[in-house]
Prior knowledge:
Elements: H1 2-26, E1 38-40, H2 47-64, E2 67-73, H3 81-92, E3 102-108, E4 113-118, H4 128-144, H5 148-167, H6 189-213, H7 216-232, E5 267-272
Parallel strand pairs: 1-2, 2-3
Antiparallel strand pairs: 3-4, 4-5
Protein name: TPM domain-containing protein
InterPro entries: TPM_dom (IPR007621)
Organism: Clostridium lentum
Amino acid sequence: xxxxxxxxxxxxxxxxxxxxxxxxxxxxxxxxxxxxxxxxxxxxxxxxxxxxxxxxxxxxxxxxxxxxxxxxxxxxxxxxxxxxxxxxxxxxxxxxxxxxxxxxxxxxxxxxxxxxxxxxxxxxxxxxxxxxxxxxxxxxxxxxxxxxxxxxxxxxxxxxxxxxxxxxxxxxxxxxxxxxxxxxxxxxxxxxxxxxxxxxxxxxxxxxxxxxxxxxxxxxxxxxxxxxxxxxxxxxxxxxxxxxxxxxxxxxxxxxxxxxxxxxxxxxxxxxx
Length: 273
């Protein structure tokens, strides 16, 4: 029985390890578009709304250096949207490397999932609870009605306004835009619970490894991640990113899309519609 538990534990941890390394090494994200602040790879957002979002994003960056970016894709291809968004955020380097003041709004249309990824420097202005409230009040009800234009513009407006307030500036591009929220009273506990399942399982497996196997598998897992990171080196064009054509400001992300080199610690919120 004890041998069976050890085999099960080791197998589970190895699967987690292999999945993490395979995702990091093989996932190819789309290149940043010339629209810069809104990257719609599905043709969902109209030209008029795209121009409004670009106007807000440009003014926000000029006045604060913060970068608020929308990405609309078809699917994450069975990758948890939290992991996809975090890796995409880091690969593009949204925000500046000094302030980590980027924010990503990711929609996966076929999956009907959304994710807000917040850079560490904006976690005070946009805490997890607030990002979830904005998406569920200003975005989700519109997404459910198929009105992605207004839903995304509403959310972009709210996030940009909160960031501007954090920096003590006002955005003139927001003045002629009317946004409205729709109270969404559906119980979101199932979504929140599912987001906690994977981390909970991993913590349990680590605990069992320490108790039953003196942490040997965990040490091996960490060594494999370190080795994999060294072998990967700086993130380059192999991931399918553009150069500096989108007009961003370089940074430690290796020029992938030309963002400012910002990163995220995984703060934010996610859900479905």
